[in-house]
């Protein structure tokens, strides 16, 4: 299967995409992977998502809570912190500026 996303580009935007998804609603790790796939990032491996979530948590952009699961071990739910909301707002603004420059007609 051919990857539809440049891994270097994805590395730069994965944090922003994760923050955006978790701004919509809190989710546990595997659910985040499913939501990424539903959003068109089907080639992002689960092994990439979990370390990114852990990093965002260490940076104070996400907080977590454990919720008992009827089908196995407790699930770790991720939610945005105020720092995460600020990072999302800043990241969206930077992304819009980059898109504006990239979409300008060439001379």
Description:
The chain is built from four helices and three strands; from the N terminus they run αβααββα. It is α+β, with helices and mostly antiparallel strands and 107 residues long. The chain has a three-stranded antiparallel β-sheet. Strand 2 (62-69) and strand 3 (72-80) form a beta hairpin. Helix 1 crosses helix 4 and helix 2 (29-38) crosses helix 3. The N and C termini lie far apart (37 Å). The model has no long low-confidence stretch (mean pLDDT 83).
Report the β-strand fraction as a percent range: 15-25%
What integer is the average pLDDT?
83
Gyration radius, rounded = 15 Å
Oligomer: single chain
Helix content: 55-70%
Question: What's the story with the biggest beta sheet?
Answer: 3 strands, antiparallel
- The SS-based structural class is alpha+beta
Number of helices: 4
The total count of strands amounts to: 3
Please mark out the parts with pLDDT under 50 across 5 or more consecutive residues, or reply none: none
Measured between the Cα atoms of the first and last residue, the distance is 37 Å
* Topology as a string of helices (H) and strands (E): HEHHEEH
Shape: globular
- Give, in spatial order, the strands making up the sheet with the most strands: 1-3-2
